[in-house]
Predict the structure.
Amino acid sequence: MGSIQDRLTKLLGRDRVLHSPDALLAWECDGFTVHRGRPLAVVLPDSTAEVQAVLQLLHAAEVPFVPRGAGTCLSGGPTAAGDAVVVDCSRMRRVLEVSTVDLYAIVEPGVVNLDLTTAVHEHGLHYAPDPSSQSVCTIGGNLAENSGGPHCFKYGMTTDHVLGALVVLPDGSLARLGDTAGPRAPHGLDLAGVFTGSEGTFGIATEITVRLSRDPEAIRTLLASFSTMADACRTVSDIVAAGLVPAALEILDRATIRAVEASVYRAGYPEDAAAVLLVELDGPELVVAEETEEIAAITQRHDALRLEEASDPKERKRLWKGRKGAFGAMGRLNTDLYVLDGVVPRTRLEDALNGIEAIAQRYEVVLTNVFHAGDGNLHPNISFDGRDPEQVKRVVAAGKEILELCVELGGSITGEHGVGTEKIDHVPMMFRESDLEVMARVRGVFDPTGRCNPGKAIPERNACAEPAKWPQMVARVLDETEETFGPDGGRAP
Ligand SMILES: Cc1cc2nc3c(=O)[nH]c(=O)nc-3n(C[C@H](O)[C@H](O)[C@H](O)COP(=O)(O)OP(=O)(O)OC[C@H]3O[C@@H](n4cnc5c(N)ncnc54)[C@H](O)[C@@H]3O)c2cc1C
């Protein structure tokens, strides 16, 4: 029979099955570096048929697997424990079909989000959901996470743009969910909608049909700066209360502005401001012009220090560069970054930010804020040194309290980054036992043996099953790091 690695190698060839410890390093974690795990192997299939063959083999051998795109997830979704094989879809990056009439595209899961927009740009079209990681993350990952992004305030999340998917189920069989006519007709239940946001626990999508949107006639981008965060938050509430629906409403706090301005993502943001608010308006030229005036008046009412407008596409790109590069800029503050993802009602933004600051002070952690203010979707970012177990403990505890606060304020523990392994223990903060039971049953329809991305998204319901191993795993990784490299992880600057 041979080992599972040998059998996979026989199937895909030596170049597309990785299993040496060095080769596996790059797949040890995603953007949530607290949880790490070295998989049994990584396979790099090229087609639906190859994904099917891999999953059939793993199913027969009763080996769990983890789907993966670009690994930019921030909740541990594509991170594998030692007994699982990672099925990396990043080589499957063809745009298979574009309809400029019916406005859809069929793509392979490894197509990078921004590459899809680039591919249809000449037709005056774009793909609307735009995570800040859009130059790297894949449509497969976006589908699994139901990803959002700055423009999702107006245009909706990934689920609003997915029409269908071809899915390889965990036993290697194929299922077609939805189609180009939309997820509801003629297939009855919206199964593409059910699959969207399932965090890689239902199977592997190998073809995804997404809606394309027409480029707006006009776009105007504004940057308002404020001397207090409260003024920035109240401006957002008033903009929405006035019935305006900008394409994006993004806030960055002082510490983020400074990190951005000191980095390669420098955007010319005013460093004396306590907060900047990036507003983008799009639509018919006349409407956008009127709305720009209304927004200027609202920012004035809240004592904006300055209001700047991008005068051409180059300037617009500059204003967005700082926002889209903000997480990257945090790399200047420490070796690791924990990007949290809580949601609160817009009117509670100020309370949430005050509470978060108090938590950060109590746990003595360095915290910055950059967030999708229009959606009330906060991203408190904690910069820390992952080589220091004591710091890691404080960071994880502070993160938990922040999410508790979001729930207390009427919000939720995730807006767009998913539960993954990061928040698996926090799910009961929001759901009752009976809710979890329903979710587990739905999952069981797609993955009856529970071997598709185990330990993610939905807490284990079966009392006989293995509990989630992540907390122990963090400890094990920290122990191993110490054993191998000494207490500083061998990476002291
Ligand atoms: C700098 C930065 C900025 C970010 N900004 C945003 C943002 O604005 N909005 C936002 O929502 N997120 C954001 N993210 C998070 C992340 O980019 C998204 O969750 C993204 O969708 C993950 O895509 P990926 O290709 O990297 O997927 P991965 O990280 O590889 O995987 C994510 C999940 O999808 C599953 N998966 C991957 N491919 C498939 C497939 N073909 N079939 C089934 N399951 C699959 C995996 O098992 C995993 O659970 C950001 C991340 C970073 C690092």
Remarks:
- The chain has five domains: 4-90, 95-214, 218-328, 334-427, 432-484.
